[in-house]
Amino acid sequence: MALIVQKYGGSSVADAEKIKNVAQRIAQAKDKGDQVVVVVSAMGDTTDELIKLAYQVSKQPDNRELDVLLSTGEIVSSTLLTMALEAMGYEAISLSGAQAGIRTDAVYSQARIVEVDPERIIRELDKGNIVIVAGFQGVTEEMNITTLGRGGSDTTAVALAASLGAEICQIYTDVEGVYTADPRLVPEAQRLSEIGYEEMMELASYGARVMHPRAVELGELFNIPILVASSFTQSSGTLIYGGASMEVRNKVRGIAHDLNVAKIAVVGVPDRPGIAAAIFESLAKAGISVDTIVQNAGLGKITDLTFTVARSQLSKAIRLVRPIAESMGAKKCVSDSKLGTVSLIGPGMQNTPGYAARMFRVLSEKDINIQLITTSEIRITCIISGDRVKDAVRALHQAFELERGE
Amino acid sequence: MALIVQKYGGSSVADAEKIKNVAQRIAQAKDKGDQVVVVVSAMGDTTDELIKLAYQVSKQPDNRELDVLLSTGEIVSSTLLTMALEAMGYEAISLSGAQAGIRTDAVYSQARIVEVDPERIIRELDKGNIVIVAGFQGVTEEMNITTLGRGGSDTTAVALAASLGAEICQIYTDVEGVYTADPRLVPEAQRLSEIGYEEMMELASYGARVMHPRAVELGELFNIPILVASSFTQSSGTLIYGGASMEVRNKVRGIAHDLNVAKIAVVGVPDRPGIAAAIFESLAKAGISVDTIVQNAGLGKITDLTFTVARSQLSKAIRLVRPIAESMGAKKCVSDSKLGTVSLIGPGMQNTPGYAARMFRVLSEKDINIQLITTSEIRITCIISGDRVKDAVRALHQAFELERGE
């Protein structure tokens, strides 16, 4: 008898019919004789609707209150899923994040899990119950409710799998798995049957929305195999696990892209210590994440500082950066909101110069100008004009023969 | 500096605008320098909508899960009200029933409060916070969520007022207070400026929907003055407290009525022990409340057993009672679903025979047939045809000169 953790996303439980469908799938797993713990997201657009309500009563809702409000979405879906299972004759019980022992820090709206106390879950499993846990939420030492921010329910699922010693964590969503590129851009994109944690993290960080990098990271840390598959079909999905990298060494695994990219360039600033610190501290305080940072060594004592932020945060970032740049004597502060990234991901990428060269040639043949380049061990990312991203992804997918499959 | 507890019902917080209006009223109380604890119900029809969802996934939703589901309604309204207060510059915090220390037994869907641990509320008040508590809910020793059943939020408010030693518990609702009769039936009905706990309990038990008798009972037990007033006007409402009875001794205070009444009569049953027990045990097991019970001493060894139930439970009750009646040799088992009650309520009623006689005369003059009569210390109730209830209430209101006010 194994213990498995399943997670179902919001689109999989969007209405009563879909909830019953998910209950059927859970029942199948239980019928195999396994112990089953299920993590569930809020139904469909519930979270957005609750946020809308909050902004109807307050221009700037308090984060503590917003977390309590949003946590109700997952509680609603967890009870309905439990009722649907009971209606089918299965023993089940719903638990809130707090009841399930998800303890977090007190950073409201993006809390981190500090520890999981699985005592209650184990007790319910031992009684024969299927345990349905409200995802995306936890509780502080002071018994205040928190939410885990983006990718929260995935993170709940992997954390529970780790603390329960589960055999596998199955993430059921509205896509069939992880693809060599976004199938909406590249119809020939192939589903990967498996991928390593590191590559998955890079894919997720650089635009593949199928799973949040944070949950993948947790999976790697505790060595929990994660299956990503569709909740609507019986397709076998993609297994994310530790073994994959070794078997498929030195091969491009996939192409990620991101259209939510904007660039700020502080041009002609005196090259002395403290400039970058002043700018990035100010952005960090305002909660603005900076992705790529490039400082061009200029002529003499003048330098250019370029970095990217999410498109939605550009205007806020500019308002913060401009006065700092001016006070430091920068020539000008320019921005471009219409950028995108395209990333080539695979093990050993950085140590194999051929890949980078081939990537740049493919883009140049398509007359796509590269604005910035960043790399990691297993990734090469080019920042290009947003309206060329689609062409770039298609050309690279073809050039690296990803339509051939594994 | 006094401590007051306020409670706002679902119609008072039905949308964002109404929530902001309630926030204004709470702010006024806070501005007077008092410590304020607020209990809030779920927004408008939220509870009904959640119940509908539950029945979409299950024909018979489990009570434990239903309680968790329904408890989210009050959590949503409590966070929104807190946000609205914060937007006005007030310090406030929302607490769930569990966080507010409402401990209950484990009778899901109609849990009883076992104790209140007000430690967290006191801590938040000491920080200067207005504390907004989600009504209608509590938590068991096992940390399972419960709901308190009908009148739940009123009960939460009075229980908190008692445990915090509040000066007063203010129940804000969509009516202006307690009236001598339902103003929709009797336009001349007068608002009572005050009423005793006992009379209020009888009024509430026999049809006045303004407050649940259970919360009034708790108020009497801990001697908490309860003000019932409108959340939409500045009208002064009705004060329910211990002193009232003495001052207005021997006076009809109000007329309650109830149209949700059905009667079952088991006719011609052998008069031997055990018959009533068999019938009422069976009804109790099915969760059917029986109100009035009358056993008519018949001729010889034959008796008639008559009792009333809520109209909505009649068909279920009949299905249970008929086979028992038949097995005991009853002649027949008849029912009438179209009954109503009219009740005269005031202190010392039973000890002043004149009231009963006058009541019966008034009804007879209107040609209204009395089917059953029940009395208490402070109440006389007649069960009559449902379609004559309106006439009966009006005639009695006039005969006892209630339009004159106090």
Give an overview in words.
The structure is a homodimer of 406-residue chains. The first copy, chain A, has 406 residues and is an alpha/beta fold. Chain A has 2 domains: 3-174, 3-Layer(aba) Sandwich (Carbamate kinase); 255-401, VC0802-like, CATH 3.30.2130. Helix content of chain A is 36%, strand content 28%. Chain A contains 12 helices and 18 strands. Chain A has helices at residues 16-31, 46-57, 63-87, 119-126, 152-164, 197-205, 213-222, 244-247, 275-285, 314-327, 353-365, 389-399; strands spanning 3-8, 35-40, 92-95, 102-104, 113-116, 130-134, 137-139, 145-147, 168-173, 194-196, 226-230, 238-241, 254-270, 290-296, 302-309, 332-345, 370-376, 379-385. Chain A has an 8-stranded mixed β-sheet, with helices on both faces. In chain A, strands 14-15-13-16-18-17 form a 6-stranded antiparallel β-sheet. The first copy, chain A, has a two-stranded antiparallel ribbon with strand order 4-5. In chain A, helix 2 (46-57) packs antiparallel against helix 3 and helix 11 packs across helix 12 (389-399). The first copy, chain A, is globular, with a radius of gyration of 23 Å. The model of chain A has no long low-confidence stretch (mean pLDDT 90). The interface between A and B is large, with 40 and 40 residues.
